[in-house]
């Protein structure tokens, strides 16, 4: 398109049906570009054609344009949503989609293309003025993948590829290359396996055999790591319960590696009954009615604010984790269940 060579005020005469182009040109960011958020790139395009490519691509939020080579890049983020990727770069021009009139997209301005599609004009069709075709494979969401290692040229568009690695706590196998196939699906050459167990119990439903006053089971998985029973509301079973237990529903089946119990500390009245944490058994089960698979045991007695770690050598699989003892009172200020997804 030759109109790129003229000043912005001439556009108002050349393309009156599009509305004013002045807002778009007045907000160009010269000497800047958005890095490593590419959908697709194009060669031999004018600047306005680059903007139009963004307007007809629902996922596109901004463009980078290199004037010296007529090179266009479409990005799925903008400088607001990816601030750290916005940088100085001589020769480049940065512009955002929202600064341009939708009318520039022609018939595609009213398209219903999906997020991973782009609108293409159909010049010789009698019944349809545009069609939607796949534009990209979307943002990879495979568990454990870290996209902060992508390269400058990486893009998520059809027939493009990106380079990824595994996040902390995961081990990697494969080259790390992801290829966007013509069907809009990623082909992964990377597998990320968990090497550090996850904490599984926080905020999950919990119950116990009895309750002392208002010290319900939920206080052992509320994230409060204080150990003053009164101020911090630890879970506590009731008087006369000589076979107390506490149980959490992880809401999915996991391989359990260990259970950590934060014992009661000194309260504001100077009471120390931390020794009550003794002869504690941890079991695991697939169903609420059968939580009998051994995990580990703590003989005790516990000490003030002690973090008791009970390992599960056999890594039993289960959805429910139960802590029980055979003497009166079970007090748990916080419980962590560590394990791996299956």
TrEMBL record:
<keyword id="KW-0106">Calcium</keyword>
<keyword id="KW-0479">Metal-binding</keyword>
<comment type="similarity">
    <text>Belongs to the fucolectin family.</text>
</comment>
<keyword id="KW-1015">Disulfide bond</keyword>
<dbReference type="InterPro" id="IPR003609">
    <property type="entry name" value="Pan_app"/>
</dbReference>
<dbReference type="InterPro" id="IPR006585">
    <property type="entry name" value="FTP1"/>
</dbReference>
<protein>
    <recommendedName>
        <fullName>Fucolectin</fullName>
    </recommendedName>
</protein>
<dbReference type="InterPro" id="IPR000436">
    <property type="entry name" value="Sushi_SCR_CCP_dom"/>
</dbReference>
<dbReference type="GO" id="GO:0001868">
    <property type="term" value="P:regulation of complement activation, lectin pathway"/>
</dbReference>
<feature type="disulfide bond">
    <location>
        <begin position="137"/>
        <end position="180"/>
    </location>
</feature>
<comment type="function">
    <text>Acts as a defensive agent. Recognizes blood group fucosylated oligosaccharides including A, B, H and Lewis B-type antigens. Does not recognize Lewis A antigen and has low affinity for monovalent haptens.</text>
</comment>
<dbReference type="InterPro" id="IPR008979">
    <property type="entry name" value="Galactose-bd-like_sf"/>
</dbReference>
<dbReference type="InterPro" id="IPR035976">
    <property type="entry name" value="Sushi/SCR/CCP_sf"/>
</dbReference>
<dbReference type="InterPro" id="IPR051941">
    <property type="entry name" value="BG_Antigen-Binding_Lectin"/>
</dbReference>
<dbReference type="GO" id="GO:0046872">
    <property type="term" value="F:metal ion binding"/>
</dbReference>
<dbReference type="GO" id="GO:0042806">
    <property type="term" value="F:fucose binding"/>
</dbReference>
<dbReference type="GO" id="GO:0010185">
    <property type="term" value="P:regulation of cellular defense response"/>
</dbReference>
<keyword id="KW-0768">Sushi</keyword>
<comment type="subunit">
    <text>Homotrimer.</text>
</comment>
<feature type="domain" description="Sushi">
    <location>
        <begin position="135"/>
        <end position="194"/>
    </location>
</feature>
<keyword id="KW-0430">Lectin</keyword>
<dbReference type="Pfam" id="PF22633">
    <property type="entry name" value="F5_F8_type_C_2"/>
</dbReference>
<feature type="domain" description="Apple">
    <location>
        <begin position="17"/>
        <end position="99"/>
    </location>
</feature>
<dbReference type="Pfam" id="PF00084">
    <property type="entry name" value="Sushi"/>
</dbReference>
<dbReference type="Pfam" id="PF00024">
    <property type="entry name" value="PAN_1"/>
</dbReference>
